[in-house]
Structures are given as C-alpha cells and as structure tokens.
Amino acid sequence: MEPGLLQSSAWPLLIDLYFFLGGLAGGAFVIATAANLIDRVRYQDVVRVGYYVAFLAIIPCPLLLIVDLGVPTRFFHMLMVSKPSMDIGMSAVAVGPFHLKLYSPMSAGAWALLAFSVFAFLCALDVFLTDRGSRSMAWLRTTAGILGSVFGFFIAAYPGVLLGATARPLFVNAHWLGALFLAVSAATGGAAIALILSLLRGTGARDAVARVMRITSVALVVQLIALALFVASVRAAGSVKVSAALGQLLAGPYSATFWLGAVIIGVIAPLLLLLLRGAAQRGAPGMTVLVSALVLVGGFLLKYVLIAAGQAS
Amino acid sequence: MARTLAMFTDVSLCIGCRACQVACKQWNELAPEEPEWTGTYQNHAHFTDKTYRLVRFFEEPGDDKVGVRWHMMSDVCKHCAQAGCLEACPTGAIYRTEYGTVNINQDICNGCRYCVSACPFGVVSFNHDTGTATKCTFCNDRLHNGLGPACAKACPTESIRFGFRDELEAKARKRVDELQKLGHKDAQLYGADQQGALGGLNAFFLLLGKPATYGLPEQPKLPQKNVFMDSVFSIASAVVVGLGALLAFRGRGGGDQGGS
C-alpha cells in the first residue's frame, strides 16, 4: 500500500568498517589506559600493544568517512562552516565558525573522533619514544590516557546512538544500541590486544592475556544483555512496520548472519570457551587466538547486520 | 521571525491531475526522470532528488456498496516544527528560515545522508549529481519575492493552499466541520495541531481517513528523542566495562604463572 514511504541513507560497507575500526580503537585504548593506571611496568606489553592498536586503527577512520561523503572536499563542514546559518537546531552550540549539535550524534561524533585521534597519537608517541630509550613522560601518558578514554568510550558508543536517532522502523523505538555498540567495541578491542600479544609473545604473556580476556568476557556479557534489551525495546513498540523490521532481522533474510555470525560466533561460542575451558581462561596462546578471532569476526558481523537490516527495514 | 507560513493540502479536493508535481519540477528546474510502474498512477514510488511534490495514489478496499475507495494526496515536505532532518544534520546545512520552513543550504551540505534516514516521512533525497541532500524548499526564492509556492499556485482545485499558518489552520478546521456535516465522518486534520506530534507540521493535510490509509505514520516521532536515554544507557555500559577493566588488572595473578 505504501511503496517505500521511508528512505534509506544507503551507507555502504565503508561505514560498517568505520564503526568496527573506530570501536576497536576506542576499546583497545580504554583497556591500555586501565593497564597503564594499575601497573604500567607489569602490564607494559598490554599498554604498548593497546595504544599502538588504537592509533593504527583510528588512522583510516576519517578517510573512510570522508570518502563516503557526497562532497568529500567539504568534510570540515562537520566541524565548521564559514557562514553559520541562523537556526540549525535545538541543541546547536556555535563558537565563531565552529559548531556542535548535542542532539546530532554525527556532529558530536565528529568532534569526538578528532579529540580521540589527538590523545591516541600522544599515547602511541609516548610508548614509541619510551621504546626508543627516551624517558617516558608519565604525567602526559596518564593525562592523555584518562581524557582519551572518555572519547574512546564515546567513539565506541556513539554509532549505536546515531542509528537509534533515525526514523528507520528497526531503530525508531529502539534503545540500548549505544550500550550494545560500546560493549562490542570493548570486546573487539580486547580481542585485538589478546590476539596480537599471543602471537608475538606466545606463552610469555599468559598473565596479561588472561586478564585482557577477562575484560573481553565482561564486555561480551554486557553485549549479550544489551542485545536482548535492544530486541525487547523494539518488540515493545509493536507497530506493524516495526514488527516486520524485527522479523527481517530475527527470522528473515538477515537472520543467518545475525544468529550464526553475530550471536553464536561473536558471543556464545567465545563466552563458552572462556568460561568452560580453563585453557583460554589462563591465557594459553592457541585458545586465545581462536577466541579472539571469533570475537573480532562476530563483532564486525553484529555491527554489519544491524546496519544492513536497519537500512532495509 | 516573520509570521509562520504554511501550506494546507486538502485531499478531499484533489483530483490527481499532478499539476502541482509538474509546476514544482518546472519552477525548481528539476530534470525529467524515467517513469516507473508502481501499480497505480503514482509516479514515482517515493520522493526523489528530482521530485519534491509527489501525488500519491492509494486504493482502499471498500464494502458492498463501494468496491474500491480511491485516494489521492499531493504529498510534500512537511516542514516540521521539530524536524528530524534539521536536528540530525551535522554540518548546519539544514536550517529554519525566517518563515518557519526548513531548508537545505546546498553550499554547505557535504552529502553525509544522515538526514535521509532521520526524516520520519521519507522526504529528504540524495542527489548523486551534486552529492548533496535535496528536498522541497517551500519555493524559498518565490517567498522572498512575495509569491507562494509554485505547487499551490498551479493547483486548479485549491486543494493546495498557501498562507499564514494561523489563518490556514482556522480555515482547515472549518473545512473539516463542513465535510463531517456532509457525512465524511473520518475527515481529519494531519499535522495542524501545534501541540501535537513534531510540534505541528507547517505543511499540514486534511485527510478523509486514517493517516495509515495515506501511508502516513499515526504518531510521527522526532528520532532525536532517543538520544538522551541511549546516552544514559551507554554511560552505564561504559561504567561496567571500565570497572571490569580496572578490576581485571588489579586482581591477583590471573594466569598460571606458578606462585606469582
């Protein structure tokens, strides 16, 4: 009866990749900061790998976003325009040519991405210089780590809030997407650190790897809870269109990717392996590599399938 | 701000001639498009970057007396008082004019397409030629020259009317009363109430049936209403994960490092 009343942004795979990489960077940064705060000497491997992963993963992010724009040369309009318009929304804050719109997750996210990149650079630089024999600027790393973690969490969560603030039937009444994306990001960030540590250090990094995997399992539990709450919040809305959108995700064309990829590979299997098999819990390299790979693949698929099903709904 | 301007589309007077659609195309110099088969006389299936006014055709199964009820409705950007596209736009390209209408500044838009999925009515469209988002401008150039929108000017039955919002709203309410007296029990206004959904629509409608009959959402919602709660939940998630991280590094040896 209503041929396509709503329209889709038609965001391509570039955006899925950004949501994955940006989240991974935020998650890895936060974990590295936690390790740095508790014991920077004992966990120096976690700190080093975490800050490097965060920095390397965030480098392609702005490029992915800019390439996707209709007019890439206007990328800086996300932050400023030379001639600010009069009334650009209820939450707009304008200082000179710069503007921030608190109710537009994309506007806030652009600023957060900029801020996070600076802190990720500073921390990676300090690690790099320390490795080269310079004296570490402890105060700088700690300050940048704490401030950067705020933005790291932001980078991890805001894509979910952004999707939740659209009129797509799957998202219009949905809550918990931000919490879900944050948990996925932390899990993938932890998995990336554990994977690299296991591959580089083998059994030598067992204690550190075991601790990182413990963080990953906490994130996976949060992820599972947030996912259930997200589905429940969509189901509660109950309109025909919303139910149809949810059906597409849970039982329709996206169900295989969702259940097999995002839920079983991404959460259930790694959690079972972590909780039941002592080997992964103790940071054994082989098992860690397997579990980390599952978490990374599943984390990407979860973000991918939510975006795809949301845009198709 | 000047007095708010509005468009009032009365579907009871629409004859589906599409003069509005053509006038809109001509005035705004929108290129022709390949027609497509949508199952009715409607062309196109939805708004495009070259179709800002769209006459929608709906068939409603009737009863024994009436076989099929045929509905025509000239659809357009609603210029919502609380506009999802405007709030979503990260560049400030989408702004509210002094007339209360919503416009996209084509020199600022960078084509992120967030507004496209933030519109509760599927109005905003992406133009692949310019790389920017486009939609009805309420003929902003005509307004500045003392003219009404081209669609309202062209409508031969006065189904589309243009004027000050308060005056149009009063006329619309009178028209609903008339129609109800004539036996159209389901006649109702959509978006006229400024206390209602989205703070009222500056392009509002008179419908002869439920909004769903015309493919309109019963209770359109400002998508940004989710942002606050979602942020609170995100912070809760961050606290759990952050504490989990600190505790994981704090506790005694996690691995089997012998007695360490």
Describe this structure in words.
The complex is a heterodimer of chains A (313) and B (260). Chain A is mainly α. Chain A has one domain: Formate dehydrogenase/DMSO reductase fold, CATH 1.20.1630. Helix content of chain A is 73%, strand content 3%. Chain B is globular, with a radius of gyration of 24 Å. Chain B has one domain: 2-Layer Sandwich (Alpha-Beta Plaits), CATH 3.30.70. In chain B, strand 2 and strand 3 form a beta hairpin. In chain B, the strands form 4 sheets. In chain B, strands 8-1-10-9 form a 4-stranded mixed β-sheet. Chain B is an alpha+beta fold and 260 residues long. Chain B contains 7 helices and 10 strands. Chain B is 27% helix and 18% strand. The termini of chain B are far apart.
* Secondary-structure class of chain B: alpha+beta
- Give me the side-by-side strand order of the main sheet of chain B: 8-1-10-9
Shape of chain A: flat
Low-confidence stretches of chain B: 254-260
Q: Regarding quaternary structure, how should these chains be classified?
A: heterodimer
The total tally of domains of chain B equals 1
Percent strand of chain A equals under 5%
N/C terminus separation of chain A: 16 Å
CATH top level of chain A? Mainly Alpha
Q: What attributes does this structure have?
A:
heterodimer; A: 313 residues; flat; B: 260 residues; alpha+beta; Alpha-Beta Plaits; four-stranded mixed beta sheet; two-stranded antiparallel ribbon; 10 strands; 18% strand
Topology:
The complex is a heterodimer of chains A (313) and B (260).
Chain A: H1 13-39, H2 44-58, H3 60-68, E1 92-95, E2 98-101, H4 105-131, H5 138-164, H6 177-201, H7 206-237, H8 240-250, H9 255-276, H10 278-281, H11 285-312
Chain B: E1 5-10, H1 19-27, E2 54-61, E3 68-75, H2 84-88, E4 94-96, E5 102-104, H3 114-118, E6 125-127, E7 132-134, H4 140-143, H5 150-154, E8 160-164, H6 165-181, E9 188-190, E10 203-207, H7 227-250
Parallel strand pairs in B: 1-10
Antiparallel strand pairs in B: 1-8, 2-3, 4-5, 6-7, 9-10
